[in-house]
Amino acid sequence: MVLVKAKRDEILGPLSAVSGIIERRHTLPILSNVLIDRNGDALSFLATDIEIQILARSAASLGAEARGVTVGARKLVEILRALPEDSEVSLQQQDKRLLVKAGKSRFTLQTLPAEDFPRLAKASGEAARFTLSQKALRRLLGLVQYAMAQQDIRYYLNGLLMVVEDKSLKLVATDGHRLAYASMALDAKLPRQEVIVPRKTVLELSKLLADSEDEVKIEVSPAQAAFSFGNIELVSKLVDGKFPDYTRVIPTGHKNKLQIERESLRQALLRAAILSNEKFRGVRWVLADGSLKIVSSNAEQEEAHEEIEVKYSGDALDIGFNVNYLLDVLNNVSGAEIECAFGDSSSSALISYAAEKDFKYVVMPMRI
User: Fold this and answer.
1) Which pLDDT value is given to residue 66?
2) What is the pTM (predicted TM-score) of this model?
């Protein structure tokens, strides 16, 4: 029974979009599979890891009696990628197998029943619904996502705080050593929602969003976040926990302010990082009138010195930072010039950009 007959990329495109969330090892074998199903007049591909669910639709033509089937996602992706680009591919159900045919190539894959495939239930409760362009959401995620924790025991840091309030969307990420904040105005006044979106969802969403003006429909409820764009629907459970009060972390009264060209600072830090301690990655900033010196050293007593002329007339300061935290922000935010605000050598620094009015980055100092 023919499920679908189409050009390779009409199947591979949506299949690749959903298969990114599939883990290599699962206690439930069916979670390694993708559900291929008729969805109205189109073919759909559905993948889940129980926490996230992604559905992608294809315009591929269907067989006469298409039904649902689940098959190993990674194997099917690899087979399709290995076929010539212009291949005509057919997927056929044969008992408990899926036959993949292209030209004189034949592949038989094991299947599991479609009715056993788990799906995320639609969340109940009041939801905030709004739309953005894919470009705007992708940019906003890019401004903050690198500051998320990775495998912190404080599980609520392994994600991104999303706050919908009145006519604004705020995104915040922190790993306890640095914090990134970005916001943008929305067209509609919305009910307040404050949720933590899991790290894996944020990274997958960033990969799937296009740099285009096409819109993303977003629905945020207390237990779930859903994003619909193009032929993709991504639904994610949320992290249950209390995110730190970011408003108390962002300093407001720092009087020592430094203006500096982003790229020249980035290049100087890259050079200084070469001789920084491999474990602690520390660099010292020595600030004096009109000058910034960047100094690093390592256990072998090797040293790097960089000096940059800057706009600075504040207090003389000697303050240490993790160089990776500084490079992260410089690599992820565009803009020709940045401003750094300091209190003293033991207080956090605030980095902002003239080109990004609604962006703030706070980095804690370190002892060197």
Assistant:
1) 52
2) 0.93
